[in-house]
Amino acid sequence: MADPGDAAMGALLDEHGAAAVWRALRDGEAPQPPPGARPDTVARRSARWRDRAGRIDPDALLAATADFGSRLVVPGDPGWPTQLDQLGRRRPYALWVRGAHDLRHACLRSVAVVGARAATAYGMHVAADLAWGLGRRSWAVVSGGAYGIDSAAHRGSLAAAASAVAVLACGLDLAYPRGNEGLFADIAARGALVSEHPPGTPPSKHGFLVRNRIIAALTPGTVVVEAGLRSGALNTARHGQELHRTVMAVPGPVTSALSAGCHRLLRDGAAVCVTDTDDVVEQVGRIGADLRTDEGGTALDPGSLDDTSRRVLAAVPHRTCAGTASVAETAGLGLDSALSSLGLLAAAGFVERGPSGWRRTAGVRGRG
């Protein structure tokens, strides 16, 4: 009935409870405004809510939820992440969840990694590396499922065999963006897809903005990898500040407009500078137990890759480009396996697309 994050509806729920509010609006009545609320605002919105309530079939909605393998989680359920309650009257009314993991458990030890959709190779490289390192240390990565930094972070987390959580701005039965449909399937198999929107809800600009408060609230800290001055990632950072979460930012080239937002956060003292996984874990981990160390490798060390990824990397040339079929043949793999490995290697910064295929990223060691 109500738009996500509507404080007026949140006030009614706090005062009367969800069941009573639903019954009143479904019966064509206006719930009594709570103390401190503006009666005219509640009255105006109640008319819209009543109209919407008359068109909702709860049984059909729950049946559609079950049909595509998701579940509905509401405040008070065992799987409800109680850290969302800190959003107060902007708390989600309910969450649709699809995936192998219990959302509350997955987010107990988690970090949000967010940034620009039109990310640079540098940003993708850093996001994947951070997420991989966090995953190797049993931290789940939460992001928004978008192209660019979000996708690189999700893929880095999956490459480390860790839980990945994607908070979407549309119904879970809609894959948006469409190009990430395969990624969403992988996240559902190894983590959780989350939305406060019911099935069939298309994405909207407002939906993306209100979605960001959930990403910030689910985790103890948010890392902004790349962000322009008007980036939605800065909106997530602001929500993190309001919730007294740790906000971190990765510095980038001073000439890059896609790092200008990160630099502003650092300049204004709104974020802590981080450059690797140890920096992040030291900020959000347990005092005395997660201090920075100078040991261990990163995702950019080819020795950290599994056997399949090493074979694919060895099959990618340095200076010339090779097509996917050629890489698969050289690595002795099927086309699908090779393409999957190439996607992970690209997200982690090992390979890149050239004018006629794949080539090794400059500076990456290995044969070829």
Would you kindly provide a written description of the structure presented here, covering whatever features stand out?
The chain is of the alpha/beta class and 368 residues long. The protein has three domains: 1-56, no CATH class; 96-284, Rossmann fold, CATH 3.40.50; 302-360, Winged helix-like DNA-binding domain superfamily/Winged helix DNA-binding domain (Arc Repressor Mutant, subunit A), CATH 1.10.10.10. It is 42% helix and 11% strand. It is built from 15 helices and eleven strands. It has helices spanning 7-16, 18-26, 39-53, 58-67, 103-106, 121-136, 149-159, 181-190, 205-218, 232-242, 260-267, 277-284, 307-315, 324-331, 335-347; strands spanning 71-73, 95-98, 110-114, 140-143, 164-167, 192-195, 221-224, 246-249, 272-273, 351-354, 357-360. The chain has a nine-stranded mixed beta sheet with strand order 1-2-6-5-4-3-7-8-9, sandwiched between helices. The protein has a two-stranded antiparallel sheet with strand order 10-11. Strand 8 (246-249), helix 11 (260-267) and strand 9 (272-273) form a beta-alpha-beta unit. Helix 9 packs across helix 10 and helix 13 (307-315) crosses helix 14 (324-331). The relative contact order is 0.10. The model is unreliable at 295-299 (pLDDT under 50).
Topology, please?
Layout (H helix, E strand, L loop, with lengths): L6 H10 L1 H9 L12 H15 L4 H10 L3 E3 L21 E4 L4 H4 L3 E5 L6 H16 L3 E4 L5 H11 L4 E4 L13 H10 L1 E4 L9 H14 L2 E4 L7 H11 L3 E4 L10 H8 L4 E2 L3 H8 L22 H9 L8 H8 L3 H13 L3 E4 L2 E4 L8
Parallel strand pairs: 3-4, 3-7, 4-5, 5-6, 7-8, 8-9
Antiparallel strand pairs: 1-2, 2-6, 10-11
Helix pairs in contact: 1-2, 6-7, 6-12, 7-8, 9-10, 13-14, 13-15, 14-15
